[in-house]
Amino acid sequence: MINKTVKNAREAVADIPSNCMLMMGGFGLTGIPENCISALLERDITGLTIVSNNAGVDDFGIGLLLKKRMVKKMISSYVGENAEFERQLLSGELEVDLIPQGTLAERVRAGGAGIPAFYTPAGVGTEVAEGKESREFYGKMYLLESWLKADFSIIKAWKGDTAGNLIFKGTARNFNPMMAAAGKICIAEVEELVEAGELNPNEIHTPGIYVQRIFQGKDYEKRIEQRTVSK
């Protein structure tokens, strides 16, 4: 069985060039590839297009890449926690495609499944529909949306093996698995890395066929955007 492990995050992202398209897994700040983001910050690259559910916060996650002016365009659905993102958007420094969250998820899933386009009712009658083909099905209007694919998918899982099989935990499953399939090269960082064959096949969420590089991460902060506790 092929061993897909690399030494660390630096090695995993070493060949990511400027002006490429990246998918970044995670839901809010949950399940984001913290180690790979830190390694990218050490690279002298710019012009990145990033597909992500969110834009991180000012001092964590994708927000750090934005702060360093490494990102040319964001394709996202939720960006409300990042003041630097807002500043760059309003000043014209950053291109942004805001997409309904379900549509974003399905466009990524379609890219991994090899489905070039699909119809959805989300966005009909809004600015989202501008310039897009619409069609009526069973008395209801739908928009034609296209797939999303990337040069690299950078994701984070709870547990993985040396063959690239992955298990996610909680809301980290919202975008990470589908992004794994939609990137030409998928880089996975995991909290625990085991030998191939040690994972229960019935518990695997992403088969290793979708993963090209895997390594065990470290020092995860696992921040929460808005912490709410009972009084």
UniProtKB/TrEMBL annotation:
Keyword Acetylation: no
NCBIfam families, per database record: pcaI_scoA_fam
A GO MF term: CoA-transferase activity
Official protein name in the record: 3-oxoacid CoA-transferase subunit A
InterPro entries: 3-oxoacid_CoA-transf_A (IPR012792), CoA_trans_fam_I (IPR004165), NagB/RpiA_transferase-like (IPR037171)
Lineage: Bacteria, Pseudomonadati, Bacteroidota, Cytophagia, Cytophagales
Keywords: Transferase
